[in-house]
C-alpha cells in the first residue's frame, strides 16, 4: 500500500465554502480514481495549512493522484498544494 500526504495552503479560502468544496467536489473526485483505498482530510491550522492523507493500492495509482493534485495545483478556489509526498505504508491499524 502507498500513501500520499498533501499539504494545502488554505489561507485565502473562506472556511465554510472550502469545506463544501472539499466534501462535494474534491473528495468525490479523489475517491473515484483507480486504486483509492481510503483518505483523511484535516482542516487548516492557525498557519492556514490543511492536510490530506490518502492510501492507494499501488504506486502507479498514487502517482496518478499526485499528477492531478500535486504541488502547484489548485484543487479548489484559492487553495494551493504546497507539499506532496508519496511513501510506502509501513503499518496501519
| SS elements, strand count | 4
Radius of gyration: 13 Å
Main sheet: strand order: 2-3-1-4
Question: How many individual helices?
Answer: 2
Number of domains: 1
What's the CATH C level? Alpha Beta
Q: Based on helices, strands and strand pairing, what is the structural class?
A: alpha+beta
* CATH architecture call: 2-Layer Sandwich
Compute the separation of the termini in Å: 13 Å
Helix-strand string: EHEEHE
**The biggest beta sheet, please?**
4 strands, antiparallel
Estimate percent helicity: 25-40%
Strand content of the residues, in percent?
A: 25-35%
Low-confidence sequence ranges: none
Shape: globular
Task: Write up what this structure looks like.
This protein has a single domain, classed as Alpha-Beta Plaits, CATH 3.30.70. It is built from two helices and four strands. It has helices spanning 15-31, 59-69, and strands at 2-9, 36-42, 49-56, 80-88. The longest helix is centred in the N-terminal third of the chain and has 17 residues, at 15-31. The chain starts with a strand and ends in a 5-residue tail after the last strand. The mean pLDDT is 92.
Amino acid at each position: 500500500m502507498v500513501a500520499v500526504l498533501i499539504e494545502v495552503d488554505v489561507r485565502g479560502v473562506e472556511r465554510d465554502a472550502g469545506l463544501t468544496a472539499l466534501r462535494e467536489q474534491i473528495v468525490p473526485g479523489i475517491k473515484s480514481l483507480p486504486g483509492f483505498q481510503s483518505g483523511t482530510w484535516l482542516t487548516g491550522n492557525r498557519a492556514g495549512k490543511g492536510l490530506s492523507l490518502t492510501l492507494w493500492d499501488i504506486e502507479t495509482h498514487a502517482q496518478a493522484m499526485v499528477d492531478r493534485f500535486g504541488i502547484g495545483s489548485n484543487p479548489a478556489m484559492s487553495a494551493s498544494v504546497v507539499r506532496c509526498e508519496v511513501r510506502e505504508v509501513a503499518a496501519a491499524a
